[in-house]
Design a protein that fits this description.
Number of domains: 1
Largest sheet: none
Membrane topology: Multi-pass membrane protein
Number of strands: 0
Radius of gyration: 17 Å
Subcellular location: Membrane
Main location: membrane
Helix content: over 70%
Structural class: mainly alpha
InterPro entries: Marvel, MARVEL-CKLF_proteins
Protein name: Proteolipid protein 2
């Protein structure tokens, strides 16, 4: 990877979207470590969401969304965040209902991750809405 690509990646990580995606990955990693250490309640959910979040973070930070135009990356990211938010929130609440005293803090990490996924979905939605209104035709062009 050459210097301009590294600079582009660092610039992306400093945007609201980049910070939200980085926060999602970090909170899912914390939730995964904590869930594995205590109860193991729905441990697959943070694994999947962290992996998908890391994949999308790499795609956007390296500018691959502009090189591979066959995939609509914004819509893919929107559906990723839109499904992750309720899945993480619901599984965390279910795990909190059957909590032991050590697992409460760990489920709070997962709840924060779910809220952050919701915020990220809102960021993507507003981006899609702005692109739709700027195209003028009602068709989203990226």
């Amino acid at each position: 990877m050459d210097a301009p690509e590294m600079a582009q990646g660092k610039e992306y990580l400093m945007t609201q979207k980049g910070m939200a995606m980085t926060g999602e990955v970090v909170l899912c990693l914390l939730a995964l470590i904590c869930k594995a250490a205590t109860s193991g309640c729905f441990i697959l959910v943070p694994i999947v969401e962290m992996t998908l979040g890391l994949f999308m973070l790499i795609v956007f930070s390296m500018g691959l969304d502009k090189k591979f135009l066959e995939v609509h990356w914004l819509w893919s990211d929107f559906f990723r965040t839109l499904t992750a938010c309720p899945v993480i929130l619901i599984t965390s609440i279910v795990c909190l209902i059957h909590w032991d005293s050590a697992a409460v803090l760990f489920e709070i990490f997962a709840i924060f991750a779910g809220v952050l996924f919701g915020y990220d979905a809102w960021l993507v939605f507003t981006t899609l809405k702005d692109k739709r209104s700027s195209s003028g035709s009602g068709v989203i062009i990226i």
